[in-house]
Fold:
Amino acid sequence: MTSTAAEKATQSGGVRGALGRFASPFKGVPALGWLFAGLVIALLEMYFGKFLAEGVLGLDKLPALFGSLIIFKKPSLQFPFIFNDLGTIAAVIVYDLVIYAIPLVLVSLLTKGLANKLAGLVYKRSVLVSVLIHILLLYLALRLWTDISTYRELVTRLTMIAVIVTLSLNVINGYMGEFSTSHPGFMAVGAYVTSVFTIALFTNSNYFGEAKLPGSWAPFLFPIALILGGAVAAVSALVVAIPSFRTRGDYLAIISLAFMFIVKSFFENMEVVGGPRGLGGQPDLASFPVIFVWMALGIWIINNFVRSTLGKALNAVRDDELAADAMTVNTRKTKMTAFLFGAFWAGLAGGLLAHVLRYINPGSFGLQKLAEVLAMVYFGGLNSVLGSIVGAVSINLLGEALRPLELYKWIVIPVILILVMIYRPTGLIAFREFDLGEIVKPKDMKEGDDAAA
Structure:
């Protein structure tokens, strides 16, 4: 090894060693401890955030998204081009340290022992109860954090919908190993079917006349509308699946892209649902709790699907279709089932999206939506439920954080994606199983206790 290479290795080891020493105290913090810290942060910001931001640091408003919208500004030709003044940036950094970073470190470390004990007591009694408690605490932390700002709530709702869409596409492009580009079309079908159902039954509209049912019934029938939208999207997927899976190669990508354009053109020429003007007036049914429940169900059902016998068959088809066929796997039936399953969840997500925005337009389900969904899947990682969650959250928050940059945002995000594809070709978290039991387990649990639980 040359002296230059040795120096680089030493520097790399030094950096990694420093990071390892910093992270080592946190390795024993269980998921329950991180959730405790999240609750404390949300409460701290709720009661003291506005005073700290406006009264102490002199900011115009409370930072909605970790201060990124304040740090960046509309690009100009004057220095510093895209950043606010240094005083404002320093104030945002201090705010993030006081509200987020320091409480996160202190609470997680101080409650580590208590959190492990509580997690162990519940985990030994019932893993299911432990999972439900963790989900409830996650919901409370997110709910408190989003209650501070309507903008936060909107971004969080859209991000949770993106998680469902990303998971559904990863079933096809990741676990099945095909390349589908039809997901915006499935979302459009689900969005329009669900919207027609709710608007026609529960609102007075120019398109469908007076409401057929009392508005008080809407929250109870909304799940039926979402399932109907997903079911119609799954049936429409047969248009792609039947011809595509009779062949091999890249035909699915071509046929699915054609399907997306056909669906977009179809709704643009359907005046009964607004045509190119779009369809609005959806009742406000996709609240934060509703979307959170559907996201939790989606993660649980899709995770069980990919870990089932059918999911293992999908992996076999992806790795070697001829070998899977020789091992008595019905490859065509397996692929069609997975494709329709993914289309169902994409249609359901489209119905939720329509009722968050309360307006849909055929143009919203075109190439830009396709690029966003593909970016979330491949950025997070193929063949991984956890990777899909990370990809959806990362890309959505990054897009919102860079919103003030306008056109420059679409330069920064692709550069980040290119770098990820160079250094992590399969994504940030690829080919990793999502085991809720392992996540909620206390860090200090011994192997015997784990087996008993």
Q: What stands out?
A: The radius of gyration is 24 Å. The first strand starts at residue 279 and ends at 280. The chain has a mean pLDDT of 88.
